[in-house]
């Protein structure tokens, strides 16, 4: 009898065979005995919260070139379009809640003295859990902080009411989205434009990265690298994972689809399935 679709699977190394539940237990033993863990998370972590992709669900943004739009140049040329894009993302993030994977990850981080989570998401959901703050690095910034393009002013956004532009946007449809620069959020202190607190292409990474991450990796042997809901092909994330592995760390990947990873070692792990099931299940074995 085949297993139901929702049952997560664990593959060991490059094996095509699904490992049994004892392998989950062995992984939990390894995780428990690993003092230093580096965890890289991406969009897949927030997918169960309904924040699956960068694209709008209504198709309005299907034709955009994200690399062009998410740039200081585009913001300078066309802040209205850029703000409409990020404003929609921010509204969705404000409406979303952390899922079971966020909470399980926070619990795993709390159970280790030397754990570092590199968060590539900008939705702020992991920050709403009790993940220890010092070990959580938002390298791409966060949508929920809006800052001035000129002075030091910034504001944490907790509801759409915090920024009138968001209320305007939340009441608009595709044809009537805010269209004037005067509609956009402006600094109450210096009157210049505010911008989303995310890191755009060509800008320096947030949270002190990459220097502090390079330092952390080189300080001492890392036992385990966990890549949860993220591509391992994107720079600089791929480089951190590779460096840690070169220095002897084992690798555990958690993703929706089991795909070919060309250099998995025999003692690496690939968890396939719903991350909101997998991370709590790992936690249950600890
Ligand atoms: Zn200002």
Features of the shown structure:
zinc, 10 strands, 3-stranded antiparallel sheet, elongated, 9 helices, 30% helix, binds zinc ion, 7-stranded mixed sheet, Ssirtuin_cat_dom, 17% strand, 286 residues, Rossmann fold, single chain, alpha/beta
Description:
- GO terms for molecular function: histone deacetylase activity, NAD-dependent; metal ion binding; NAD+ binding.
- One of its GO terms (cellular component) is nucleus.
- Belongs to the sirtuin family. Class I subfamily.
- The active site is at residue 140.
- Pfam families: SIR2.
- The structure is a single chain.
- By secondary structure, this protein is of the alpha/beta class.
- The protein has a single domain, classed as Rossmann fold, CATH 3.40.50.
- The protein contains 9 helices and 10 strands.
- It has helices at residues 21-32, 66-69, 72-77, 79-95, 100-110, 164-170, 211-219, 237-246, 275-285, and strands at residues 9-12, 36-41, 114-119, 136-138, 141-148, 154-156, 194-198, 224-228, 250-255, 269-272.
- The strands form 2 sheets. A 7-stranded mixed beta sheet has the order 1-10-9-8-2-3-4, with helices on both faces. A 3-stranded antiparallel beta sheet has the order 6-5-7, with helices on one face.
- β5 (141-148) and β6 (154-156) form a beta hairpin.
- It is elongated, with a radius of gyration of 20 Å.
- The mean pLDDT is 90.
- The structure holds zinc ion.
- Zinc ion is lined by residues 148, 150-151, 153, 187, 189-190, 192.
Quick gist of this model?
This protein is α/β, with parallel strands linked by helices and 286 residues long. The protein is built from 9 helices and 10 strands.
């Amino acid at each position: 009898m085949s297993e139901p679709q929702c049952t997560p699977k664990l593959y060991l190394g490059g094996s095509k065979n699904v490992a049994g539940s004892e392998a989950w237990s062995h992984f939990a033993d390894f995780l428990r005995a690993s003092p230093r863990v580096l965890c890289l998370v991406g969009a897949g972590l927030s997918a169960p919260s309904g924040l699956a992709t960068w694209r709008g669900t209504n198709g309005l943004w299907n034709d955009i070139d994200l690399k062009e739009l998410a740039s200081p140049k585009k913001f300078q040329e066309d802040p209205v379009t850029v703000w409409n894009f990020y404003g929609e993302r921010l509204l969705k993030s404000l409406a979303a809640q952390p899922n079971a994977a966020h909470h399980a990850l926070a619990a795993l981080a709390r159970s280790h003295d030397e754990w570092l989570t590199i968060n590539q998401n900008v939705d702020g959901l992991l920050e709403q859990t009790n993940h220890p703050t010092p070990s959580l690095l938002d390298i791409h910034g966060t949508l929920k902080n809006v800052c001035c393009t000129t002075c030091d002013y910034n504001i944490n956004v907790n509801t759409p009411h915090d920024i009138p532009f968001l209320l305007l946007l939340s009441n608009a449809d595709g044809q009537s989205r805010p269209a004037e620069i005067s509609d956009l959020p402006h600094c109450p202190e210096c009157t210049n434009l505010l911008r989303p607190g995310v890191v755009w292409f060509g800008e320096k990474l947030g949270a002190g990265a990459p220097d502090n991450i390079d330092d952390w990796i080189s300080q001492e042997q890392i036992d385990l690298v966990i890549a949860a809901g993220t591509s391992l092909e994107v720079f600089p994330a791929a480089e951190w994972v590779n460096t840690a592995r070169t220095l002897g760390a084992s690798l555990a990947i958690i993703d929706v689809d089991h795909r070919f990873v060309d250099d998995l070692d025999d003692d690496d792990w690939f968890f396939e399935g719903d991350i909101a099931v997998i991370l709590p299940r790992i936690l249950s074995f600890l």
